[in-house]
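Retry 2 of 3 after timeout on previous attempt. Resubmitting structure tokens to design endpoint.
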């Protein structure tokens, strides 16, 4: 009897320990499959993980490709060049830039060392693998061409002399040209500018312009006060979507219908009428909008609902956010099966606890993965990879450049 009882007890204890480990590790929501020794963000257009913030020198793991559930190092070149920048008084100085770049998936991808070198914004031009746009200080932008020897030549974009747009009576330079986006085919650059208002006109007034990379021409589109660029229309790279903003009588931020502007046709129309119940909507990527609704049934706990609306198919999905009374940073997995968000709830001690949460939109099952503080780490951003892989970044609160990124296979079974 003893010989038969021991194995049975052993397997019961083993099963209990396995379940306990699964609960502690969050495996019911998704098991960890990898840990990267740095923080990353995911470039969906190229399928490359980009390390940030980089250390004082470029490391081999700056760029990682993600394919078939695995990561691999992407080789890169380094560009070291100088652009003319301007200080607060409009005086020219050398703006030194150092970028790592690689061609992957038929497109350019970049990273830089913002702590050590001057920061800049980089924009790929569709499928071009030898040219891109670099913008500095929201002042101006340059078309950068990579030559065969790994060098770079820069050409100033956008017309006009910057000196025309400096307020001599102001101790600081006002924004001249802030890039908003580049069209998916790389032809059009959208930017906003206050250059027509800098010496006269209302403070903070902005217009939106486009620059045509094919013809080298630029033109004003419209006044862009109280307006917001959203995305480019799917399947129509010369059309972009935007919205107007305002406040309701109750002081709540609300938005207009989604509007569309055709650059080729030089016309504006309504792309999607938004119902009154969706007026506080936010975007998820370039296809969906969502709103958060809080219900307070009599004699029942509060309920938080997430309503997701496809602006192309007009399909609506409603899911419960469970115990989370406040949710933000909402992101949809690539196959649309899961919703990821940062959620906060009030615990028994009256303390707000933020967590990284995933929600299965079909089954309405919900799983928490990490609280905001994890030992010596602070949970920061998260992102989705293909195949329902969730990446969570952890900022090291004690040591610089010792961050982590953990990848989880999400499966609410």
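Retry 2 succeeded. Sequence:
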């Amino acid at each position: 009897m003893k010989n038969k009882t021991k194995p049975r007890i052993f397997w019961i204890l083993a099963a209990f320990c396995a379940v306990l480990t699964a609960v502690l590790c969050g495996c019911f929501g998704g098991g960890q499959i990898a840990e990267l020794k740095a923080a990353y963000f995911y470039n969906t257009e190229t399928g490359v993980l980009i390390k940030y913030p980089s250390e004082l020198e470029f490391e081999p793991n700056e760029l990682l490709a993600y394919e078939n559930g695995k990561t691999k190092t992407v080789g890169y070149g380094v560009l070291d060049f100088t652009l003319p920048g301007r200080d607060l008084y409009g005086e020219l100085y050398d703006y030194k830039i150092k970028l790592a770049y690689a061609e992957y998936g038929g497109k350019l991808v970049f990273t830089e060392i913002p702590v050590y070198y001057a920061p800049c914004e980089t924009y790929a031009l569709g499928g071009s693998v030898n040219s891109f746009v670099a913008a500095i200080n929201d002042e101006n932008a340059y078309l950068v061409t990579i030559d065969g020897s790994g060098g770079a030549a820069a050409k100033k974009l956008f017309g006009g002399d910057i000196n025309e747009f400096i307020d001599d009576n102001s101790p600081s330079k006002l924004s001249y040209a802030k890039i908003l986006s580049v069209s998916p085919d790389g032809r059009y650059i959208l930017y906003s500018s206050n250059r027509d208002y800098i010496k006269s006109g209302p403070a903070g007034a902005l217009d939106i312009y486009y620059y045509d990379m094919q013809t080298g021409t630029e033109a004003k589109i419209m006044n862009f006060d109280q307006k917001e660029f959203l995305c480019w229309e799917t399947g129509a790279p010369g059309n972009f979507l935007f919205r107007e903003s305002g406040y309701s009588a109750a002081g709540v931020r609300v938005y207009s219908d989604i509007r569309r502007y055709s650059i080729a046709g030089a016309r504006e129309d309504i792309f999607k009428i938004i119902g009154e119940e969706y007026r506080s909507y936010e975007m998820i990527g370039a296809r969906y909008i969502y709103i958060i609704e809080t219900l307070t049934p009599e004699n029942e706990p509060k309920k938080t609902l997430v309503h997701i609306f496809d602006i192309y198919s007009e399909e609506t999905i409603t899911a419960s956010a469970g115990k989370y009374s406040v949710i933000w940073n909402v992101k949809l997995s690539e196959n649309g099966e899961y919703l990821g968000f940062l959620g906060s709830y009030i615990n028994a001690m009256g303390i707000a606890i933020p967590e990284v949460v995933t929600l299965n939109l079909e089954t309405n099952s919900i799983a928490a993965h990490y609280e905001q503080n994890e030992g010596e780490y602070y949970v920061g951003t998260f992102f989705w990879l293909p195949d329902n892989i969730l990446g969570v970044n952890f900022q090291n609160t004690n040591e610089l450049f010792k961050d982590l990124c953990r990848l989880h296979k999400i499966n609410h079974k």
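Attempt log closed. Residues 1-28 have pLDDT under 50 and may be disordered.
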